[in-house]
Design a protein that fits this description.
six-stranded mixed sheet, 26% helix, globular, seven-stranded antiparallel sheet, alpha+beta, single chain
Length: 496
């Protein structure tokens, strides 16, 4: 391979943003675009050495096998988190074409209009709801919902979960019994309420950013995609980013950018690359032995994430559950059905119900996102394997997160070497308000589980067991014990 490549635009990271930008920028024939991805091609036949990993990308239920899979996942970890008992939290990030859109749970959710309007009020011009709605509509193809709010004919097919067990109907009924509304479309005009999940898939196959935006234009003469390309630094000359260097198989390659260098490594990899390129807090960079190109103290700061908490329950024997269909003869039948029709268990996303509710009546808009599935995870078996393993007994899980946490953390380079893992600190539950909100969320989850439609099906709540007094300190301790990342890190290269 040549030691120097010339382009107008060089995009670092072929994830959710990088694939879209590669598509849009290369639409002009005169612009040369180079897209660099540290991972490999996501198509099974293009990368036989990771055939099963890539196959799991495209089968919706395969997301569970991608948890911890080093072939497609960076498998980052946080530093010990003080607010949750010093636990180390797993931080999965996609390392493959499509990035995290190739390994996530496929749940398709927009934010609330007021969230985007708040961004605009904070200085992010062009990011208000009226600015983004046409973009949301242009990207999606949803054959349901209000046509003034939901797009038709876009590259991302959005479907509702259609194949589900009767236990899911019972879970939705329980949310009604608990006093929460139902909605037909949580991405439409009535976002408050709980309903069946929406997912980004078409004919039973995941629609990642790579499949929707990159592969259809891969034959363009002016678009060059390099996989297995680990970018080590942005080249800064006379105060301007003029290109990047990447390594592959021990070879160093330079890409010159005549127009722009665009970082699309996400909230974990982008700030770390900036720091290794000399852009960040000057003192921090000097301590790492990195020459300072630009002293920017906010790089890597302002990290935010949803703190996911979930309660699982063991159901009575014979109650319909995914656990009973994920092994043995039932699994064989599920595989056969998927191969013949692209339907059934294997065509389902990570959860089957989703919605937004209020933790208490005096909240102006929903402050909690609820999710559920007729399945439970064997946590001990999962901890010993890279993939998520299900319990052998029937079960269900109901969980969620507080939508707008106050806690802020950071993500920084831990060393100058490109191979060094980032230093990630979320600082979950580090403010009193976040602890109060987490306790309120836990009470909401248990309120739903105690309703007649579910209580009649349940044998026991098995993690965590609700056998302690319903007092604040007890529940706060439980919140610190059971939560993890919602896999939504944002903010380290903040806008506005």
């Amino acid at each position: 391979m040549e030691a120097t490549i010339s382009a107008d635009y060089v995009i670092v990271g072929a994830g959710s943003a990088g694939c879209v930008l590669a598509n849009r920028l290369s639409a002009r024939p005169g612009q040369r675009v180079v897209l660099l991805e540290a991972g490999h091609d996501d198509r099974p036949l293009r990368k036989p050495s990771q055939f099963m990993s890539n196959l799991n990308i495209h089968i919706p239920a395969g997301w569970a096998k991608l948890n911890g899979d080093p072939a497609v996942n960076w498998n980052y970890q946080s530093l010990p988190e003080p607010g949750v008992g010093g636990r180390i939290i797993q931080v999965p990030r996609g390392k493959v074409l499509g990035g995290s859109s190739s390994i996530n749970g496929l749940v398709y959710v927009r934010g609330f209009p007021s969230d985007y309007d708040t961004w605009r009020q904070l200085g992010c011009t062009g990011w208000g709801w009226s600015d983004l709605l046409p973009i949301f509509m242009g990207m999606e193809d949803a054959a349901f919902g209000d046509p003034s709010l939901r797009g038709r004919g876009g590259p991302i097919k959005v479907t509702k979960v259609e194949d589900y067990l009767s236990t899911i109907d019972d879970m939705i009924q329980a949310t009604r019994e608990a006093g929460f509304p139902e909605t037909d479309d949580y991405n439409g005009s009535a976002q408050e309420g709980v309903t069946y999940c929406q997912q980004n898939s078409a004919t039973g196959v995941r629609l990642s950013a790579a499949r929707a935006y990159l592969h259809p234009v891969a034959s363009r003469k002016n678009l060059r995609v390099e996989t297995g390309a680990l970018v080590t630094r942005v080249i800064i000359e006379n105060g301007r980013a003029t290109g990047v260097e990447f390594t592959r198989n021990g070879e160093i390659v330079r890409v010159n950018a005549n127009a722009e260098v665009i970082l699309c490594g996400g909230s974990i990899n982008s700030p770390v690359l900036l720091e290794r390129s000399g852009i960040g807090d000057g003192q921090r960079l000097q301590d790492l032995g990195i020459p300072v190109a630009a002293d920017r103290r906010e790089v890597g700061e302002n990290l935010q994430d949803h703190y996911l908490m979930a309660v699982s329950a063991r159901l009575k024997d014979g109650t319909p559950s995914v656990n009973g269909t994920a092994a043995g003869w039932p699994l064989v039948k599920s595989i056969a059905r998927y191969l013949l029709s692209r339907k059934g268990l294997l065509a389902s996303s990570s959860c089957t119900i989703n919605g937004f509710v209020r933790s208490r009546p005096d909240v102006d808009i929903p402050d909690i996102q609820l999710m559920g599935a007729a399945a439970t995870v064997d946590r001990y078996a999962t901890a010993a394997n890279s993939a998520i393993m299900l319990d052998e007994f029937p079960g269900l899980t109901l969980g969620g997160w507080v939508l707008r946490p106050e806690s802020r953390g950071s993500c920084h380079a831990s060393a100058a070497a490109p191979s060094a893992a980032p230093a990630i600190q979320f600082n979950y539950l580090s403010t009193p308000a976040d602890v109060i909100d987490a306790v309120n969320l836990l009470r909401v989850i248990h309120k739903v589980l105690r309703q007649p439609s579910l209580a009649s099906l349940m044998e026991s709540e098995n993690l965590p067991a609700w056998d302690a007094p319903d007092d604040f300190e007890t529940l706060a301790a439980m919140c610190r014990d059971i939560g993890g990342s919602g896999d939504h890190p944002v903010g380290t290269c903040r806008m506005g």
